[in-house]
Amino acid sequence: MAEQEGITPEERPTNHRKLVAMAAVAIPLVALFAILGVALSRSGGVPAGIAINSAFGEVDVDSDIARDFVVTTFDGEELRLSDLRGQVVMLDFWASWCSPCRQEAPALAAAYLGYKAQGVEFVGVAIWDIEDEAIRFAGESGATYPMGVDTKGNIAIDYGLTGIPEKYFIDADGKIVRKFVGPVSEEILESVFSELLPQG
């Protein structure tokens, strides 16, 4: 076979090694960009580093007015937290890919039906999630309370979120009074709401 013009037999191994080296660099880069693409799609373009909480229980919280926010619910309505002033609110941060969130979702959906009549509102905010998957999750859990996706991560940042699930209990004056990381039991809900709801 005729030699390619301008390339000597001695140069061929060098060119081959260059191609192998370029491939060794390119393949990991492609994989990295693929991983980043998934992360960005789940976070709406803002990877927030949110993880699943591994330690569960109540944590101390300053009794401050809850930071106001607006979220578009899965029904297409805009919900502003401050519009719920006068009601006791449980603000739940979750995600469709979060195992503890999935485990407790049916219980939360059932609890809401009982507490709604007592003037309690649940608000679910999905973090680092894809809206279609979050909507599917909500439907599977049977949840009927307002839910939406924090598409830019601003709500999570305002609340100093470090993991999910996390729940903030807000009194009728709009103050955060209790905070729990991880799933909450029916007993915890009953205990908290008995403190926040008027007796008699």
Describe what you observe in this structure.
- The protein has 200 residues and is an alpha/beta fold.
- It has 2 domains: 14-50; 57-196, Glutaredoxin, CATH 3.40.30.10.
- It has 5 helices and 10 strands, in the order αβββββαβαβαβββα.
- The chain has helices spanning 11-43, 99-115, 131-141, 154-158, 186-196, and strands at 51-52, 57-59, 70-72, 78-80, 88-94, 120-127, 147-150, 163-164, 166-170, 176-181.
- A 6-stranded mixed sheet has the order 2-10-9-5-6-7. Strands 1-8 form a two-stranded parallel ribbon. The protein has a two-stranded antiparallel ribbon with strand order 3-4.
- Helix 2 (99-115) packs across helix 3 (131-141).
- It starts with 10 loop residues before the first helix and ends with a helix.
- Mean pLDDT is 81; it is low at 28-48.
